[in-house]
Write a structure and sequence with these properties.
heterodimer, A: 678 residues, alpha/beta, Rossmann fold, 2 domains, 5-stranded parallel beta sheet, two-stranded antiparallel sheet, 7 strands, elongated, B: 142 residues, mainly alpha, 74% helix
Chain lengths: 678, 142
């Protein structure tokens, strides 16, 4: 009942096409992450520059401009990706197909880590924003952040479209509120000629360290790499192409462009507005802000701007902080959409346990969602919901996948150009290659800078996690390959066993035992023996007497057990039968009770389970359970049980049922001709 | 009946995952049990965890575990929230401690493996001797 309330009713596979997203819903679902980055990326730039004092703030717009350049490059590059690879593997598929499985796996590891971090960073930042307006939230941010993760998990277990529709309004509200704040702020300053000052504008900013020369350049680079947090999440659309309504690639590319334009506008708008209002955002307000009141609580950048632009209007402040928190929670939701899909694809390629490939209730990859929630919660608790600390871990994985994906796209176009003869198509491919080439160069350069500036500040954790995940996935794949090789049928015809010896296990002379004997006889074995273990002489004598009185048509063999143990003597007996005739098989019939309640299993069948489990390790031995339905089993709700069993296994996102279209495994398209139409 | 002809690869694919989880648990336990200033006690906990992992895993996994152990120790037990630092001699001693623990763990594993191998050899020799003496007496072995 509780699960049904939280997760919702199971969804039929043939209803899955109803979960495909139109652009207006896909934008908030997939693009809320990069859009929400404007809530913390500008703040991170200012925070990092604050180390160098107020003078360093003058460089904030220039640092932001370089971030915008990288963002636009990445958006343009990914528009090529989604058109060329519509099957939703995103960076993973691009790297795997073009650079090889190992690079694909590096990307897969990076993306898995980043999805977890997206949830942790976004939720922590959302709580931080709410804390700017509500002190109670700031005081209990860890507990509340974990609660938000739990709520998002439950929402996503209900299904992708319901959550998408539910989150569309807040996303559009966020865009409206932030753009409205920027426009009104500049209108007041530029058109109306008013003075708009942030509450922190009057403070003096004390530099943490003296940064001169190379150190200052390093600080600028570090600020730039912090600002690159604005790029996180762009790849979510490329990974989620199958969730779009047809024509999938075109809709995904259009959504990417829209998100790029909106994100850049908001990002630059906030930086410029902060610059014009004299806003100061310090890493350590207590020691760095000179002239601030003793009880000064530093608000987030958006909260300070809202306060200044709307002249301290409380309603406006609460609206901005609440909507900003909401969009950040939606950004976490992006990861909830992307992580299970990627996990499913990796499981499909045998890099993750196959359970992750199974689509659970509401077709929402419930296993992956649970994994994501657990790891995000660990990070939030471990880092005390500090967004600034978590962001240090965040960007590495994103740029690893960006760089490898763009490099893969370069090889993709090079390969196609070798065979393409049509001049028009060649021209388009050259253009796409140039875009992806520039993207590879830019993202690669940023990756090096991020590694250089953030490794010791926490980025090593992401790298270590990626390495561990990579090695685990390689080992899982190797295991599956070994098992598959072992299970592959040989070319020669299987040899039939010479004879079949049936052994019926007897604990008492009761109906389940007699049914097992009857069934064993019905299989017409070459020999049939009933076996009981003598644990207690009196009981054994009773069994023998009853066996003879009923004239059961099978000889009863009594095995001695001096240490009153059951499993060992039976195993030894079965082994002895096998040893006498190695080319024969032994079939062991075990009577089992079928019970109606879970607790009855604790009271029955325990010996049978132990013996069965042990016998399965014996080669040439078949184990057959002969069920006996106890009266309590009639109380079992079989319809519900059937429903539970019917949940899986299901197909992953690359199966036809998801997209409703044949899968393209050989992406060969150019920008103007989406593969779905070919 | 077709029997398995090749032994299944017995290497556990989740060995590294389990070792990593053990180290994270050890980090949490050390942080909870000892104050931040008591880095020696924290180092002992981490060294025990790393050594234990090394005793149970293959050399490559043990090496990875040692590296991860040192990073977790410096990032979360010496500093906070993953910040890495290098304090010269002190850091060198800490690294040496964790490396030694790994070496000891691997040594235990090798000794254990050697003992098992010796026991198997002895059993095999005994069986061969029994078979040989059975033939000598004109009996067939069972």
């Amino acid at each position: 009942m509780l699960k049904r309330l939280l997760v919702g009713r199971p969804m039929r596979s043939d209803r899955l096409h109803h979960t495909l997203l139109p652009k207006r819903i896909a934008l908030p679902v997939f693009a809320s992450d990069p859009m929400s980055s404007v809530a913390y990326a500008p703040a991170e730039i200012l925070l990092t520059l604050s180390i160098g004092g107020l003078a360093a703030y003058a460089y904030a717009p220039w640092v932001a401009l370089v971030v915008v350049l990288v963002l636009l490059t990445v958006v343009a590059s990914y528009r090529q990706n989604v058109r060329a690879y519509p099957s939703g593997g995103g960076d993973y598929e691009v790297a795997t197909v073009n650079l090889g499985g190992r690079f694909g796996l590096v990307v897969g590891s990076a993306l898995l880590v980043d999805y977890v971090l997206t949830v942790a960073v976004s939720v922590a930042s959302g709580i931080n924003n709410l804390g700017s307006a509500i002190p109670f939230v700031a005081e209990h941010r860890v507990g509340l952040a974990v609660t938000v993760v739990a709520i998002l998990t439950a929402i996503n277990l209900r299904g992708v479209r319901e959550s998408g529709a539910a989150f569309a309004i807040p996303t559009y509200l966020f865009i409206t509120v932030i753009l409205g704040m920027i426009v009104w702020g500049f209108t007041r300053m530029v058109v109306l000629g008013e003075t708009v000052r942030a509450e922190s504008a009057g403070f003096e900013l004390r530099a943490e360290h003296s940064v001169l020369g190379f150190a200052f350049v390093f600080l600028l680079v570090r600020a730039f790499s912090s600002g690159c947090a604005a790029l996180t999440g762009v790849e979510a659309i490329a990974n989620g192409v199958p969730a779009f309504k047809p024509p999938k690639s075109q809709n995904a590319a259009t959504t990417l462009l829209i998100l790029g334009v909106i994100a850049v506008t908001m990002f630059m708008g906030i930086i410029l507005l902060a610059n014009r209002t004299g806003l100061i955002y310090a890493e350590d307000p207590a020691s760095q802000l000179v002239g601030a009141p003793a009880d000064y609580q530093q608000k987030t950048v958006t909260a300070q701007l809202a306060d200044a632009v709307f002249s301290g209007n409380t309603v406006a402040l609460v609206l901005v902080t609440a909507v900003t928190a909401l969009i950040l929670f939606l950004a976490a939701n992006t990861a909830y959409n992307g992580f299970p899909v990627l996990g499913s694809i990796l499981a499909q390629d045998r890099y993750l346990p196959r359970q992750l490939h199974t689509r659970g209730d509401r077709l929402a990859f419930s296993n992956g969602i649970f994994f994501l929630a657990v790891f995000a919660t660990i990070l939030i608790v471990g880092f005390r919901a500090s967004e600034t600390r978590l962001i240090q871990l965040y960007i590495v994985g994103v740029f690893v996948s960006f760089t490898l994906s763009q490099t893969g796209m370069l090889r993709h176009w090079n390969r196609l150009l070798r065979t393409e003869r049509d001049p028009e198509n060649r021209r388009r491919m050259h253009r796409a290659r140039a875009i992806n080439g520039f993207g590879a160069f830019m993202t690669g350069a940023v990756l090096i800078l991020v590694l250089a500036t953030k490794f010791t500040h926490g980025a090593w954790i992401s790298i270590a996690a990626m390495a561990v995940i990579y090695l685990i996935m390689v080992a899982i794949r190797r295991h599956y390959t070994t098992v598959a090789r072992e299970l592959a049928p040989a070319e020669e015809r299987p040899v039939l066993p010479a004879r079949n010896h049936a052994v019926v296990l007897v604990s008492k002379v009761h109906q389940p035992t007699l049914r097992a004997v009857a069934y064993a006889r019905a299989t017409r074995p070459d020999t049939l023996t009933a076996v009981t273990v003598n644990v207690d002489d009196k009981d054994t004598q009773q069994i023998q007497a009853e066996w003879e009185r009923r004239q059961v048509p099978a000889p009863l063999t009594v095995i001695e057990s001096p240490y009153r143990e059951i499993t060992g003597p039976i195993i030894d007996y079965v082994k002895s039968v096998r040893r006498k005739s190695p080319r024969d098989v032994v079939t062991v019939f075990i009577p089992e009770y079928v019970v109606g309640h879970w607790w009855e299993n604790l009271l029955h069948n325990q010996s049978a389970l132990r013996i069965k489990g042990r016998l399965l390790f014996e080669p040439g031995v078949m184990v057959t359970s002969v069920p006996w339905q106890l009266a309590s089993s009639s109380t079992r709700d079989l319809a519900r049980y059937d429903r539970e069993l019917a949940r899986g296994p299901a197909r992953g996102p690359r199966a036809h049922a998801v997209s409703g279209e044949p899968q393209s495994s050989h992406p060969t398209t150019t920008e103007d001709e989406p593969p779905e139409r070919r | 009946m077709s029997e398995p002809t090749t032994p299944l690869d017995s290497r556990n694919p989740l060995e590294l995952a389990a070792a990593s989880a053990a180290l994270i648990t050890a980090t949490t336990v050390a942080a909870a049990l000892f104050p931040a200033a008591d880095t020696s006690a924290r180092l002992v906990v981490m060294a025990i965890a790393v050594g234990g992992c090394a005793a149970l895993t293959r050399a490559r996994t043990a090496l990875s575990t040692a590296g991860l152990g040192y990073l977790l120790f410096t990032g979360f037990l010496v500093n906070t929230q993953g910040e890495l630092t290098w304090d010269g001699t002190t850091s060198s001693w800490r690294l040496a401690t964790i490396t030694t623990a790994t070496g000891l763990g691997q040594l235990c594993r090798w000794i254990q493996a050697a003992r098992i191998e010796a026991a198997v050899d002895a059993e095999l020799r005994q069986l061969l001797d029994e078979a040989a003496s059975g033939r000598g007496n004109g009996h067939h072995p069972a």
